[in-house]
Design brief:
The complex is a heterodimer of chains A (186) and B (485).
Chain A: H1 2-43, H2 57-65, H3 78-89, E1 108-112, H4 122-126, E2 132-133, E3 141-142, E4 162-166
Chain B: H1 18-21, E1 26-27, E2 33-37, E3 47-48, E4 55-56, E5 61-64, E6 73-74, E7 79-88, E8 96-104, H2 125-134, H3 147-153, E9 161-165, H4 175-182, H5 184-198, E10 203-208, H6 212-225, E11 230-235, H7 244-252, E12 267-271, H8 272-284, E13 290-296, E14 304-309, H9 314-320, E15 330-333, E16 340-341, E17 355-359, H10 378-382, H11 389-397, H12 401-406, H13 417-421, H14 428-484
Parallel strand pairs in B: 1-14, 9-10, 9-12, 10-11, 13-17
Antiparallel strand pairs in B: 2-8, 3-5, 4-7, 5-6, 7-8, 13-14, 15-16, 15-17
Helix pairs in contact in B: 2-3, 2-5, 4-6, 5-6, 5-8, 11-14
The chains are: A mainly alpha (186), B alpha/beta (485).
C-alpha cells in the first residue's frame, strides 16, 4: 500500500517537474526570440519605408525571426545589411532582391514645395518618423535632418507638391537632431 | 614611470626650446598688408561688418560672430579694407578661406570704443562673459575654441576648477614658456578675471618641471597678487603632457570621460596665453589682435619668440628673425609632432598660430620604408590615450569599422608617439587620420538610425494611445446611451 502511495507521489512529482521544465523552456525561448528580434532590428537602417512589405523595420525584423520573410528584402540597407543579417543568422549571403525597390545613388530627403502646399496634413499622417511639421490649412515642411527618405509621404499628397531631393542639398541638414526622450513626444 | 600622478605613456623628447628662449620676446613689425580669415576660430565663420574701401583703426571690430559657436574679429592694424575675398589660409594648410584684407596706413590709429570697462569686479559674471566675447578671445593653445562659449557652457555648475595650461604642447614650441617668464602678471590677472566670470574659486596653473624660470616668475606674480585661490603645479616634462586630457589627469588625477568634456568632471581648461589675452582685453582694452609666436628650427637664422599681429605674413616673421638658413627644407605651423606643413610663407598668422618651424633635415624624423607590424607593442606602451595602436592599425587595414570603434579610434589624439617609436616605420597617425572620417560617418549613420527608431516607436505608441482613448470615449457614449434606454 505504502509502495503504491510512494509510486503515485513520485510519478506526480516527475510530472510536475516535466511541466515546469516545459514552461521554463517556453519562457526562455520567448526571451531568446525577443533578443533575436532586437539584434535583427539593430542591423536594419530604420528608414521605416515599408519597401520590405512590412509595416516598418521592427515588424520586418519580427517576420525574419519567425521565418516569414527573407533577409534580402531591405533596399535601403543594401547588400551590406543583407550580408550582416546572413552573418547574424548563419545563413548564406544574398544580394538584395530588386523587386522590393531600387535606391537612388545618393541619400535623398523629401522636400515640400511650400507655395503649392494646401495644408491638408495627409503627409504628416503618413510620415512614420514624425519628420513633417505643420497644422491644418497651414504650410507644412519636412525636417530634413529627421527624414529617412522613405517616400511614404509622396502618394498621399493631393497636390503632388512633395519631391525627393539629395540630402546634401538640404539647407536644414546642419541641424543635428538628438534622440528625444520618450516623454517629449506627444 | 609616471604612475604616481596618473599619467601613462608619452615620450621624453628633446624639446629644442633653448634655441628659441635665449632672446626675449621681440615685437614683430606690423604687416604692410594683413590677411584675416573669417573662419580662424573653431565653429562657424564670422560675418564681416566692414566693406571694401572702409577705413579701420587698430582694435576695431571687423567681423561679428556668425552663430552660437563663433568669435569676433578685430583689425590688427589701421588702414583701409582692400578686399573681402577668399585667400589661402595657414590654418587650412593653404586652402582658401574668406578673408578680410587690410592695407596698413602706418598711422597706428587706435579705435575708441563706445564703452569701456573700469573694473571687472563691479560687473556680474554674465556681463563679464559678454565682455570677453566682445574681445574676440579664442583658445590660444591651438584649437582656437571661442573662450566665451567655453565659459558660458560652464555656467550653473558648482565646484568648478579652472586649469591654466602652461605645459607646452609639443617640442620646439616655447611661446607659453616665454609668456610665463615675461608676462606672468598678465596670466595671473587673466586667471582672476576668468575665476570671476566662472564664479569659481579654484585655479591651478600647470607647467612643466623643465621651466624653472617660468615657475619663478609665476610665483613672484602670485605673491604680488596675493590671491589664495590660485596655485601653481608642476608636472613632469613628458610629451604630450600639455594635451588637455593628459594634463587634467596629471594635475587632478582624474580622467575626462571618453565621450565627454573636461567640464563633465568640473574642470574648465584654458591656455595661459588665453588668460593673458583676457587680461589685455579686460584691463587694457586691447582685443585679441596679436599673439606670441615661436619662430624656430634649424632653417631660420635667429630663432626666437615674436609678438606678432594676427594677419602678419609668415615671411615677415622669418625676416624679423634674420631670414632662412640654407638648410631650410620645410615650413610647419605648430610643432614637429602634430604641426601642419605649410605650402608657402605668404600665409598669414592666425589666432591659433603658436609656432612656425622652419625645419631642416636635422629637425625632422627621417622615415625608412614601411615594414610589416611585428606586434612589439611599443606603440601601446607610449600611447597616452590608453589605446592599442597596433590593433587599430590592424582594424584599419581590414576596413573593420566595428574593430575601429571597439579599439577606440575616436579617442586618438594624434600625438604621434606611436609613430615615433614604431620599429617598422608604420605611419600610424596618418592611417588613423584617414580612418577617422570613415568611422565618424558610420557612427553618425548609426546615431541617426537610432533616432529614427525612437521617433518611429514613439509615434506608434502615440497612435495606439490615441486609438485606445477614442475607443474608451466611444464605449463611454454607448454605455450612457444604454442607461438612458
Amino acid at each position: 500500500m505504502t509502495d503504491l502511495v510512494g509510486f503515485i507521489v513520485i510519478m506526480a512529482l516527475a510530472g510536475l517537474a516535466f511541466v515546469m521544465q516545459r514552461a521554463a523552456a517556453r519562457v526562455g525561448s520567448e526571451a531568446a526570440r525577443s533578443v533575436l528580434i532586437d539584434r535583427i532590428d539593430s542591423l536594419l537602417p530604420q528608414t521605416q519605408c515599408r519597401r520590405c512589405t512590412f509595416e516598418g523595420c521592427r515588424p520586418y525584423a519580427t517576420a525574419i525571426a519567425e521565418g516569414r520573410a527573407d533577409i534580402n528584402q531591405c533596399p535601403p540597407g543594401g547588400d551590406e545589411t543583407a550580408a550582416a543579417l546572413a552573418r547574424l543568422l548563419g545563413r548564406p549571403a544574398k544580394k538584395v532582391d530588386h523587386r522590393f525597390g531600387v535606391m537612388p545613388d545618393v541619400p535623398m530627403v523629401a522636400m515640400i514645395d511650400e507655395l503649392a502646399c494646401i495644408g491638408c496634413t495627409k503627409c504628416i499622417q503618413a510620415c512614420p518618423v514624425d519628420a513633417i511639421v505643420g497644422a491644418s490649412r497651414h504650410m507644412h515642411t519636412v525636417i530634413a535632418a529627421a527624414c529617412t527618405g522613405c517616400e511614404l509621404c509622396i502618394p498621399p499628397c493631393p497636390v503632388d507638391c512633395i519631391a525627393m531631393r539629395p540630402a546634401s542639398e538640404s539647407v536644414t541638414e546642419v541641424i543635428r537632431l538628438a534622440p528625444l526622450p520618450a516623454a517629449h513626444m506627444v | 614611470m609616471l604612475a604616481r600622478i596618473g599619467v601613462r605613456g608619452g615620450l621624453r623628447l628633446d624639446a629644442h626650446k633653448e634655441r628659441s628662449t635665449a632672446a626675449p620676446i621681440a615685437v614683430a613689425p606690423a604687416p604692410r598688408v594683413a590677411v584675416l580669415p573669417l573662419d580662424q576660430h573653431a565653429g562657424e565663420a564670422a560675418i564681416p561688418i566692414v566693406s571694401t574701401g572702409d577705413t579701420v583703426a587698430v582694435g576695431q571690430p571687423i567681423a561679428r560672430p556668425g552663430a552660437e559657436l563663433s568669435a569676433w574679429l578685430h583689425a590688427p592694424i589701421s588702414g583701409r579694407v582692400v578686399a573681402i575675398e577668399p585667400r589661402p589660409a595657414a590654418h587650412r594648410a593653404g586652402e582658401a578661406s574668406m578673408s578680410v584684407v587690410i592695407a596698413n596706413d602706418g598711422r597706428e590709429t587706435r579705435y575708441v570704443p563706445e564703452r569701456s570697462l573700469s573694473d571687472y569686479a563691479n560687473i556680474t559674471p554674465l556681463e563679464l562673459r559678454e565682455w570677453i566675447e566682445r574681445g574676440g578671445i579664442v583658445g590660444l593653445g591651438g584649437a582656437a575654441f571661442p573662450t566665451a562659449v567655453k565659459l558660458a557652457r560652464a555656467t550653473d555648475r558648482s565646484a568648478l576648477s579652472l586649469l591654466l595650461n602652461g605645459a607646452e604642447c609639443e617640442p620646439f614650441i616655447s611661446c607659453d614658456e616665454m609668456l610665463m617668464r615675461e608676462r606672468a602678471d598678465d596670466i595671473v590677472y587673466g586667471a582672476r578675471v576668468l575665476l570671476h566670470a566662472l564664479e569659481a574659486d579654484e585655479c591651478v596653473i600647470a607647467l612643466e618641471d623643465s621651466s624653472p624660470q617660468a615657475a619663478d616668475a609665476l610665483r613672484a606674480a602670485l605673491a604680488r597678487a596675493d590671491d589664495a585661490r590660485i596655485r601653481l603645479v608642476t608636472v613632469p616634462t613628458l610629451y604630450p603632457v600639455g594635451g588637455e586630457r593628459q594634463l587634467i589627469t596629471a594635475v587632478f588625477g582624474r580622467e575626462v570621460p571618453s565621450d565627454g568634456w573636461p567640464l563633465d568632471i568640473g574642470i574648465v581648461s584654458q591656455n595661459v596665453a588665453t588668460a593673458a589675452a583676457v587680461a589685455r582685453w579686460i584691463r587694457d582694452g586691447e582685443p585679441l589682435i596679436s599673439r606670441i609666436v615661436t619662430v624656430t628650427g634649424d632653417g631660420v637664422a635667429r630663432p626666437r619668440n615674436l609678438e606678432a599681429r594676427v594677419g602678419t605674413p609668415i615671411a615677415e616673421l622669418i625676416a624679423a628673425c634674420d631670414g632662412y638658413t640654407p638648410r631650410v627644407e620645410r615650413l610647419l605651423m605648430g610643432g614637429t609632432m602634430m604641426g601642419i606643413a605649410l605650402p608657402s610663407d605668404e600665409l598669414a598668422v592666425v589666432k591659433a598660430t603658436n609656432c612656425i618651424v622652419a625645419a631642416s633635415a636635422l629637425d625632422l624624423q627621417q622615415r625608412a620604408p614601411e615594414m610589416p607590424c611585428i606586434r612589439c607593442g611599443n606603440c601601446s606602451e607610449v600611447c597616452p590615450a590608453f589605446l592599442l595602436p597596433q590593433q587599430i592599425h590592424a582594424s584599419a587595414r581590414a576596413n573593420d569599422l566595428a574593430g575601429l570603434e571597439r579599439y577606440g579610434l575616436m579617442d586618438c589624439i594624434e600625438c604621434g608617439c606611436c609613430d615615433y617609436v614604431c620599429p617598422s616605420q608604420i605611419p600610424l597617425v596618418e592611417r588613423f587620420r584617414t580612418a577617422k572620417p570613415q568611422l565618424a560617418a558610420h557612427l553618425q549613420a548609426r546615431a541617426s538610425a537610432r533616432a529614427s527608431r525612437l521617433r518611429y516607436e514613439n509615434r506608434r505608441e502615440r497612435l495606439a494611445r490615441l486609438e485606445a482613448e477614442r475607443r474608451a470615449r466611444l464605449e463611454e457614449k454607448r454605455r450612457l446611451a444604454r442607461q438612458k434606454v
